[in-house]
Amino acid sequence: MAPAPKEATGNQSSWDTLLPDLPKGPLCRYRRKASFNWKEMAVFLDGEGIIQLKNRIFSALESDPLFAHHHGEDLCREKYQELTFLRCKRLFEYDFLTLQEIIENPLKILCLVSCLGMYDWSPSLQYLLHCGVFAGPILSASKRFADFLKQIYKMEVFGCFALTELSHGTNTKGIRTTATFDPSTQEFIIHTPDFEAAKFWVGNMGKHATHAVVYAQLYTPDGQCHGLHSFIVQIRDTKSLLPVPGVMVGDIGMKLGQNGLDNGFAMFHNVRIPKENILNIAGDVTPEGKYLSSVKDVKEHSRAALGSLSTGRIFIMAASITNLKLALSIAIRFSAARHQFGPTDDEEMPVLEYQMQQWRLLPYLAATYALDYFCKSLLENFVEFYAGLLTKQRSQRQVDLGREIHALCAAGKPLTSWTAQQAVQECREACGGHGYLAMNRLGEIRNDNDPNCTYEGDNNVLLQQTSNYLMSWMDCIRDKAPFESPSGTINVLQDYHHILGWKFTANSVEDCMDSSVPLAAYKWLVCYLLQESDLKLSKEKQSGRSDFEAKNNCQVYYCRSLAIAFIEQTVLQRYHDYTHDPSIPSTLQPVLMKLSALYGLWSLSKYLAVLYQGGYASGEQPGKFIQNAILELCYRLKDDAVALVDVFAPPDFILNSPIAKASGELYKNMWAEILQGNKTLNRPSWWAELCINKPVVGRLRSKM
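The chain above was modelled as a monomer; its predicted structure follows.
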């Protein structure tokens, strides 16, 4: 289940100590009109410990010359990669979080990654890939890696996670790197059969990694393949950073974003590693070459081997939500400070007062709050599951929890990364031409968020894993057999037959102002889309198509929509329960409930055709009620919008956007930034080409 709301703590004095007042300026107009105290909200949502950690990180980065911004300078890619690595190295020196602090409050690791990402995703990801994605599966394996883990956390080695290949990414079953056990030497032989099987897109591998967790097909001496397993493989010498014998490793080149991070490739030519280097999470091999595994089911074996991907997907969700926070901080502060047009020629209004601007931005603000809560609650679910892994639990509940978390991560990553990508583009456009200036950072945020839609699994392919999970419950539903999931996310399907008979019952726009209305509609929607997907699959099979063809023909309009609706319903259910909890301070609950209602109605509005098609809604009123309620909620939230972004906006140095500084003096800040540019007022070095070397018009025209 989702975590309960925190107790309200502290008073104005303690809040002021944790969170200094924001500077006076044009944004004060909206801050004065807010219905709540933004400091109280920040302390309530995060707690004092998280805010203290944020302050420590932000203060350290701002004070350290290594993290100084180089305004108006275009760093070449090699210099950017060098600077990124030096900053990553500095993070080890700061050691913002100890392992004990993470164990006591796992949310602090999300906080650390998000705070560093708010500054720049390249060093944040480089640090996370080493300490989390590389170290994570090693930590999950046997205790024999204890000494190696110490080397990891001291940065004596530098690591990467090598799963994907040039010709295979999301389809991990197609991975072709091999690991063949040689009992005569007690070694595994890691081999790349051809260039298409080269490890590819691996973060940290391009220039820096000395070791990799390499995923390969395990072969025993009898020639039998036992599926995907992971191995620790050294790829570069730790003293010289040159490739070790048998390894070809390099950088894959310029990307659309995150170019401080070195993504690389590697090929292995019969590279021998000790038998002990297998990460025996899913299986192991005896000295004689006999394969052993406590996991008998093929699917469970795959889940055990790739379990660390769920961790990665939660971090990608957190990264996407961080990008939402950055983009909305910029666009909403800009919209509150920017005045254009008005009822008279002498009176211009803030663009935030326009309904169109509210409708474009405020639903994404509501989504940010809802998704942020969901991500944190999902991490708490995962911590319970991970604790079971570490204690070698084999209970049915542990298996079921793993399946449920996998399904939630497989749909949660697409929902958050797509929402962020759409939001950042909307924010860019909502800031007009100024949003297109690189200095205001929206282009950087958009490009850095873009890969979230692809790595750790292509979004559209991942959604199939969630729809498969949902479809797997249809036999229980048809037989009316009892079932439930450990975190309760599929318990809504227990009332499947009853829910399909529900109808839209709201009688006015005001009735729709509570998230219980869209939540009820979502429950019906999930059951209806599950029914339709099941019927579609049955018809495809009855027409003679193979299971593969039948599933392939059920994705568009059916299973894909089912998976998205399910994850949106889950996010809304958790946020609805959270915002309606009676323990929430009365000073904060009204605005949180508005956010919940707006997120639910806005997300639901794209399914209006399906609600009518399936008979849940009829007549013109339901559609009008939902649309008008969205606009009304946007209007009611506009005066709170600036305070709502103040809750999560980082300090000006970290946000690094002149149009979004906390003062709201957007024109002064932009002008100052422009004039600080390195060559802003210089004539171009090619000035003579314009002034002296005039073109001879027609000189190159063909004389034919």
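The mean pLDDT is 93.
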